[in-house]
Amino acid sequence: MRDRLRRLNRSAAGDDEGSILILTLGYAVLAIAVILVCVDATSLYLAQKRLDALADAAALAGADGFTLVVESGEPRAELTSDGVRAQADALIGDVGGGAVVVDAGTPDGISARVTVADTWLPPIVALFVPDGVALEATATSRTALR
Asked: By CB distance 3.0 to 4.6 Å, which of 72, 81, 87, 144 could disulfide with 105?
């Protein structure tokens, strides 16, 4: 009877060998996958913030593209869509990287509205992350002079 119990104990103990290694490897793979997705998500967030700042700068530059018009002896700043577009294109051309001006103009002659677009590519290719995402940002700025 004792021999039978010893054999049962040995066979039961032998079944558990190596299961910790498999669990550890599984959790390590899961942790690496989560880290890679987090790195890509952070990169996407920073790319969108960079594009937002670039759109703000382009709108501010576009708002500075005004011409002074004198009406009834009073000077007035007037924006044109061509002036806004020229200023925005010049700024994006200098510091834009891969960004392009999608739309630039003035809806009311006082403010400049600029839309900038770019494509985000992940720095680390992961299984659950797309190959690229189209990003777009719009900003509006008013002229300092009215």
From this structure: 81
**H-helix or E-strand spanning residue 144:** none
The partner residues of 142 in beta bridges, in order of sequence, read 111
CA distance 138 to 102: 9
User: What's the number of CA atoms in the CB half-sphere (13 Å) around residue 106?
Assistant: 26
The reported pTM is 0.77
The pLDDT tens digits of the residues spanning 56-109 come to 999 999 998 888 888 888 888 888 899 999 999 999 999 878 899 999 999 988
Domain span holding position 36: 2-142
State how far the Cα of 42 lies from the Cα of 52, in Å rounded to an integer: 15
Domain count, the chain: 1
